[in-house]
Amino acid sequence: MTPPAEHLPVFVYGTLRPGERNHAAYLRGRITSTTPACLQHTLLYDGPGYPYAVETAEPALVHGDLITPIPAEYESLLAALDHLEDYSPGDPRNLYERVAREVTRMDGATTRAWVYVAAPLLAARLRAAGSPLPDGRWPI
């Protein structure tokens, strides 16, 4: 993996959220904070035990959390998350793509963060045949 140009927090909206199955395994002892936040212009679709965020021009929100990695853990944590999400830069088989987006914290402030969104082929299938989750929250 090529290290990212900037160290950004990560917006999580599924199994990495506090209380969900991957939070402790991937994030315990590796983050400094968790802050409720939302991602605009994104719809959330249910997947096989986890959700997919799909970007849209529509006014829509996905609710989740902004996590801030411990600086010394940053590279290894991002590599672990890329592995969990089966993300490899430039691989057309990716289910997710890691992209930098503006995320809005509950106090109204915005922050650039890494977000794993559905890769283009999957996003097109979800838009054509999927049903967005109500209120942009997972689990429902």
How large is the share of residues in beta strands?
Answer: 35-45%
Form type: globular
> Low-confidence runs (pLDDT<50, min 5 residues)?
none
CATH class designation:
Alpha Beta
Number of strands: 7
How many helical stretches?
3
CATH superfamily: Gamma-glutamyl cyclotransferase-like
What is the residue-mean pLDDT, rounded to a whole number?
94
Q: How many structural domains does the protein architecture include?
A: 1
Helix content class: 10-25%
Radius of gyration, rounded? 14 Å
InterPro entries: AIG2-like_dom, GGCT-like, GGCT-like_sf
Domain Gamma-glutamylcyclotransferase AIG2-like: 10-138
Protein name: Gamma-glutamylcyclotransferase
Task: Summarize it.
Residues 10-138 form the Gamma-glutamylcyclotransferase AIG2-like domain. This protein is an alpha+beta fold.
Describe this structure in words.
The protein has helices at residues 23-27, 74-84, 120-129; strands spanning 10-12, 31-40, 42-46, 51-55, 61-69, 96-105, 110-118. It has 140 residues and is of the alpha+beta class. The chain is built from 3 helices and 7 strands; from the N terminus they run βαββββαββα. The mean pLDDT is 94. It is globular. The strands form 2 sheets. The chain has a 5-stranded mixed barrel. A two-stranded antiparallel ribbon has the order 3-4. Pfam families: GGACT. Residues 10-138 form the Gamma-glutamylcyclotransferase AIG2-like domain. This is Gamma-glutamylcyclotransferase.
Secondary-structure blueprint of this entry?
Blueprint: E1 10-12, H1 23-27, E2 31-40, E3 42-46, E4 51-55, E5 61-69, H2 74-84, E6 96-105, E7 110-118, H3 120-129
Parallel strand pairs: 1-7
Antiparallel strand pairs: 1-5, 2-5, 2-6, 3-4, 6-7
